[in-house]
Design a protein that fits this description.
Strand content: 5-15%
Number of strands: 6
Oligomer: single chain
Helix content: 40-55%
Radius of gyration: 38 Å
CATH topology of one domain: Chitinase A, domain 3
Structural class: alpha+beta
Order of helices and strands: HHHHHHEEHEHHEEEH
CATH architecture of one domain: Roll
Strand order of the largest sheet: 3-2-5-4
Number of helices: 10
């Protein structure tokens, strides 16, 4: 066989070019990443569609959902390849949130191990209503008018014949010290809560003006029965369990890391 003639033949040139193209395609194919759309992911797409629309997806709609997901996955994988997730505070915060959710969903104790009743008893202070007061007040802009009205009331005149108009209520029921201070100003409750019941007293200065006060009833602190707030206690219990689980999760993870603080 004449090798030089073979090398110069058109057929050999065609064969050589074809071989090179095949090699380049093979190399490109070896770099190609595979996007796997699992059966579980396909079902999630269908479930999400049904949740949002209330209808089952048609074959055409499913193809569109699948196409969109694949497109997003390709963009996501390429973004990861380019390192676009690095030094991104939004991505960082979102990943922390997702990991925290995983940690909180893995509570170490269950309601069977710590019953709702036990939790309620351990946290009674959170479900105890403070001492509260029911009272009536008359508002005055001037102290002298309040003093004059008090004298008249003590001599038998009706209390509702006195006072200046204001945005305040004339009667307040079941108000705690905090409630009273919120309405009349800091320190006002301390001036009036020890008044003798059913006796008009004052005038007491608030941030709004002057007041005559009549305490009608004192309601001692009381614990709200579990039966009346079971849903609230259960929510508190679950929240505390999630917080505890997250704390334990982070503490265990922290054992895998050492922290070095570089000088500024």
């Amino acid at each position: 066989m004449n090798i030089s003639r073979t090398l110069r033949s058109p057929f050999f040139g065609f064969l050589l070019v074809g071989s090179l193209l095949f090699l380049l395609d093979s190399l490109a194919s070896s770099d190609r990443k595979t996007i796997v759309v699992s059966a579980a992911q396909q079902q999630r797409l269908l479930t999400l569609w049904e949740t949002q629309t209330g209808n089952s997806a048609t074959p055409a709609q499913f193809d569109s959902l699948l196409s969109n997901w694949i497109e997003e996955e390709i963009l996501y994988q390429e973004a990861l390849r380019l390192g676009l997730d690095h030094e991104d505070s939004i991505v960082r915060r979102r990943m922390i949130q997702k990991l925290s959710f995983i940690a909180e969903s893995d509570s170490s104790k269950t309601e069977a191990e710590i019953s709702l009743e036990d939790y309620y008893q351990l946290n009674l202070k959170n479900y105890t209503l403070p001492k509260r007061y029911t009272f009536e007040q008359i508002y005055f802009q001037r102290k002298a008018d309040a003093e004059e009205a008090l004298t008249a009331i003590e001599h038998g005149e009706k209390s509702n014949d006195f006072g200046n108009s204001s945005m305040l209520n004339s009667q307040y029921a079941f108000r705690s010290r905090l409630d009273i201070d919120t309405t009349f100003g800091t320190g006002f409750a301390e001036k009036v809560v020890n008044n003798e019941i059913a006796l008009w007293q004052g005038p007491f200065l608030s941030g709004l003006g002057f007041h005559l006060i009549q305490i009608k009833a004192v309601h001692e602190a009381e614990v709200t029965p579990l039966s009346a707030i079971r849903d609230r206690v259960r929510m508190d219990f679950q929240r505390d369990q999630e917080v505890s689980a997250r704390k334990e999760f982070v503490e265990n993870l922290s054992k895998k890391y050492s922290v070095t603080l570089e000088p500024k």
